Amino acid sequence: MGCEIERKFLVTGSEYKKCIKPVFCRQGYLTADVERTVRIRIEDDKAYITIKGKNINLTRLEYQYEIPLMDGQEMLNKLCKNVLVEKYRYNINYEGNLWEVDEFIGENQGLIIAEIELEFEDEKFEKPTWVGEEVSFDKKYSNSNLYSIPYKKWRK
After folding, report:
1. Which pLDDT tens digit goes with each residue over 6-28?
2. Whose CB among 94, 100, 104, 125 lies 3.0–4.6 Å from 111's, allowing a Cys bridge?
């Protein structure tokens, strides 16, 4: 069984960019509701389909499989109905943990989120200096919500 325990934070500085080349990601959703999401993502030259279950606290079921790139491109172009979520992802190792920093572009430009995946919900970890407010429980920051209601449409 696949399981994901993830915490999300707003990013407050740009130090995460030091000496790290980001990966360009495009993603769309075949379905995105409270009970489940089915996502197609292309990262550089690889495509994936990911199925995620409903969050229970910080934990949810997650299954991800690589699919042929051409199939992924076709699904993004023909089956995903909203504007795609596009972002640059920086993978940063900090104090023994992998942080994924997503710098959004397009309709979500201006939003930068850092995520850390944990083994346990109450696992202790060190936050980098560029990590700010936690938004793990604020659903508007989920990628599936950014797909439906992009950051540019939020009221400031």
Report:
1. 999 999 999 999 878 999 999 99
2. 104
